[in-house]
């Protein structure tokens, strides 16, 4: 396998596994159990629970799906990174590195995808 192909597979694995993990652990529970999530979601900017939850669903459901497909990948990383930074620095600033390790790892993954791009294994090269 040549180096270019290996890099493309590595980027596919990085973006796919990170996006699936975010979607499965955070996105789908918000979408599936919307009513309960309304009572649980933090609203640090006082936008209201519905708007805050829909912004989180956008970042944690739609954006990961775009990243998996390889469509608008770098653009789709931005809302994810925004939600993660808000969670880590505004909502949970008291968390130790140990308590926030999942969030920091997701920041590392999606920042890496933002920097490196999706690679050539995408649904459409035109919109990646």
TrEMBL record:
It is found in: Cell membrane. Belongs to the DoxX family. The keyword RNA-binding does not apply. InterPro entries: DoxX, DoxX-like_oxidoreductase. This is LysR family transcriptional regulator. Its main location: membrane. It comes from the Bacteria. The chain crosses the membrane at residues 9-27, 47-68, 75-95, 101-123. Keywords: Cell membrane, Membrane, Transmembrane, Transmembrane helix. GO terms for cellular component: plasma membrane. It comes from Pseudomonas cedrina subsp. cedrina. Pfam families: DoxX. It is a multi-pass membrane protein.
């Amino acid at each position: 396998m040549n180096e270019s192909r290996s890099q493309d597979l590595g980027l596919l694995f990085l973006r796919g596994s990170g996006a699936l993990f975010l979607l499965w652990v955070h996105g789908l529970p918000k979408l599936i159990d919307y009513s309960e999530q309304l009572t649980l979601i933090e609203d640090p900017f006082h936008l209201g629970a519905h708007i805050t939850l829909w912004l989180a669903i956008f970042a944690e459901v739609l954006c990961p799906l775009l990243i998996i497909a390889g469509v608008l990948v770098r653009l789709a990383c931005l809302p994810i990174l925004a939600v993660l930074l808000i969670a880590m620095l505004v909502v949970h600033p008291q968390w130790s590195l140990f308590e926030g390790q999942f969030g920091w790892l997701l920041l590392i993954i999606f920042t890496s995808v933002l920097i490196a791009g999706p690679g050539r294994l995408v649904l459409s090269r035109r919109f990646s």
